[in-house]
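Support reply, case 0932

Customer input (verbatim):
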Amino acid sequence: MYRDPVESLEPLHHRQAAIRTLRVGMIGIGTVGSGTFRVLARNRADIAARAGRSIELVMVAARNLERAAGIVGDSVALTADAMHVATHPDVDVVVEVAGGTGPARDWVLTAIAHGKHVVTANKALLAVHGAEIFAAAREKGVIVAYEGAVAVSIPIIKALREGLAANRIEWVAGIINGTTNFILSKMRDEGLDFAAALAQAQALGYAEADPSFDIEGIDAAHKLTLLAANAFGMPLRFADAQVEGITALQGVDVACAEQLGYRIKLLGVARRQAAGVELRVQPVLVPAAHLMAQVNGSMNAIMVKSDAAGLTMYYGAGAGSEQTASAVIADLVDVARLDGVHAAQHVPHLGVHAHATNALAVLPRAAVHTSHYLRVPVHALDQIQAIAAGLAERKVPVRQVALAAERPGVGPQVLVLTGPVEQGALDLAVHALQARAEVAGPVTTLRVESLEG
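Our regenerated output:
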């Protein structure tokens, strides 16, 4: 029977009003947790309208209860015991923003065992223990959502799983660590060496006192692992990723890249090939005119190449309290909408991908096929052709050869851009080149990414 839409509004309003508030328990009230509390409170009405029901923070676990009380006031129950949040019957969803991979794993698995949904911004936890966590969530029929774990303000997980759901993803590549991007920007713009740029990042709060996870590429590899799982339906393979940070990067190479028309970025790349998936993080040369090369400071950007949509790019802040809170609350909205829906429809977590049996292999380093940049110290300027000939002898395609601009304290340098070649073949060619009489020191190599379709 036909029903006038206007007449149906009032009953629908009553039905929505009857939906119970989603009750949130949060573990951790640091940078991300405090931002989440503020944004939930400030935008309460808008969030409820978009979620279809109210979302309320009812309990917080914190090490420093006095500090926590100063943030949340007396409107939220406080406890020093994270397990109390994970098991409390009045908590529907647990937000884990304390970090780490040890206790956090136990809290999350306990929450899942008690039938609670989980939202986390903890990329290390998921990269290391994700397979176990997602399997437990699938068995209990609950959601594990983690948008804030990958690119903070950029909704890239939603883009991959929802906006690009019709597509076969070919590759994902991104600047997914704000600290290293800030350091590389300073090295290029101000001519700083790595140590000076890192010290500036630490002074401004962009880098931790111990910046190892960032500058060694580990943080980016954690995030890339999650991106690849969503893009290709493969299990989490962090242990198989090729990870190289920026600690060995020299200012001379940043300058030489600029001379050749490129900029150096720490890039995470997950690329589907016939034999498997490239899963790698390393500093690479990107054409200076490319949009990715214009991503500076602590900003993040991710490109996706898919068969139907083609190239798409996503840009936003790579760090920040409320920026991360934005992603955490977006996940809470998903939970509010999907709570009670059949588990197979739970978009945020990996679902069947978490236990794929026909998983794509991760290609070994030697099999990765890209163009390369070489900086070869030589004894004299007239030895440029000898270097090109030495590479040609080893079947390395040479696209461009140039002399580096003179720099104080740096001897003659030959710069080479190769065509695409397997890493294993290039390694052999560089080893042979290193033994030539013309070569005056270690040969530096970096990959080159065109980021074209």
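We compared this against your earlier run and they match. Two observations from our side: Confidence is low (pLDDT under 50) at residues 1-17, 351-357. The two ends are 52 Å apart (CA to CA). Please reopen the case if you see a mismatch on your end.
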